[in-house]
């Protein structure tokens, strides 16, 4: 909790100084609502330069390093647990790991909400779908694997179509496909 608070507070600074021209603000700029601004924050992609290294995008680092790496490590631990307990890896555990990209990463500022999601929600909550088959393996068989795969492909299609629609609405609000949404 303390790390998330520090990350959110670190980038809730006044953007008038020192490098106002180099900082991109999240959509909506500031609302003068202290709670909202703390959760969403103004700066879109805060960066720091580490001595002897390079410039790091803090938001991308938080999403990739602790978040996705933690999720992968927890999933691998659950797969290892299943193999240790049952001497095999079931087909049900193979179909529990997938991470579609998220459009919000590009449009939200790095506030408490995004840092909490990256550091707590993603690795721990998303890995629970792999935890159950680690303890209680289920053999799906080919028909159920085909059904799960079809539903998964349909879900990816819906997810991508919705993100494409959001992108079209944000970049071309007068496009005929999204003009009625305004």
TrEMBL record:
The chain crosses the membrane at residues 140-159. It is found in: Membrane. It is a multi-pass membrane protein. One of its GO terms (biological process) is ergosterol biosynthetic process. It holds the Pfam family ERG4_ERG24. It comes from the Eukaryota. Keywords: Lipid biosynthesis, Lipid metabolism, Membrane, Oxidoreductase, Steroid biosynthesis, Steroid metabolism, Sterol biosynthesis, Sterol metabolism, Transmembrane, Transmembrane helix. Coiled coil: none annotated. One of its GO terms (molecular function) is Delta14-sterol reductase activity. One of its GO terms (cellular component) is endoplasmic reticulum membrane. The keyword Aminoacyl-tRNA synthetase does not apply. Signal peptide: none annotated. Belongs to the ERG4/ERG24 family. PANTHER family: DELTA(14)-STEROL REDUCTASE, DELTA(14)-STEROL REDUCTASE TM7SF2. This is Delta(14)-sterol reductase.
């Amino acid at each position: 909790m303390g790390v998330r608070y520090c990350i959110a507070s670190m980038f809730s600074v006044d953007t008038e100084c020192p490098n106002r021209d180099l900082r991109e603000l999240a959509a909506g700029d500031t609302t003068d609502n202290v709670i909202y601004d703390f959760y969403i924050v103004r700066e879109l992609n805060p960066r720091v330069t580490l001595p002897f290294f390079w410039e790091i995008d803090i938001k991308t680092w938080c999403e990739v390093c602790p978040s996705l790496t933690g999720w992968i490590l927890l999933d691998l631990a659950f797969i290892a647990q299943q193999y240790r307990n049952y001497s095999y890896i079931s087909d049900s555990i193979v179909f529990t790991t997938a991470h579609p990209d998220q459009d919000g990463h590009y449009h939200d500022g790095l506030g408490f909400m995004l840092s909490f999601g990256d550091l707590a929600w993603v690795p721990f909550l998303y890995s629970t779908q792999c935890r159950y088959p680690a303890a209680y393996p289920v053999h799906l068989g080919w028909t159920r694997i085909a059904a799960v795969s079809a539903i998964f492909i349909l879900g990816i299609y819906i997810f991508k179509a919705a993100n494409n629609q959001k992108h079209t609405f944000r970049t071309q609000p007068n496009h005929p496909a999204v003009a009625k949404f305004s």
